[in-house]
Amino acid sequence: MQAIQPTVTPLQPVKNSPRVAVAPSRSSSRRHSYPHQALAAETGVKLAVNMVLSVCATSALIQLWPHYWAVQEKLQEIQAEVNLTQGRVNQSRSDFNRYFDPSEAKSVMQEQSNRVDPQQRPVILQESETPEAEESTQQP
Length: 140
Hints:
Elements: H1 22-99, H2 105-112, H3 131-138
């Protein structure tokens, strides 16, 4: 039955060997270099995203520029029309106020019709013949 029994090797205690000074410096240098690399990678990604956004914004502005000028031209045309219309409105208001002003009623009626106020005296202008003009024409 000894043939069936497994062979047991006695466990030997592992001796703690003094660590080499080189190994800890490698692990500590890796720990210190990773934060710088992560910060550099994060900054690079931020910079790339901002560059892409800047290019997109610039492209959008360039495409909108002709539309902006077309709108400005239309606005100027509309402003000119508004100014013309405002002048006509002011003229119509002054006419309206004049037509419905009681003190101007007689003069407006006189303008609108051929009738003349009976109290108004007609003025007739005639050319007067001067005797000097007759003398100058008779001398030739």
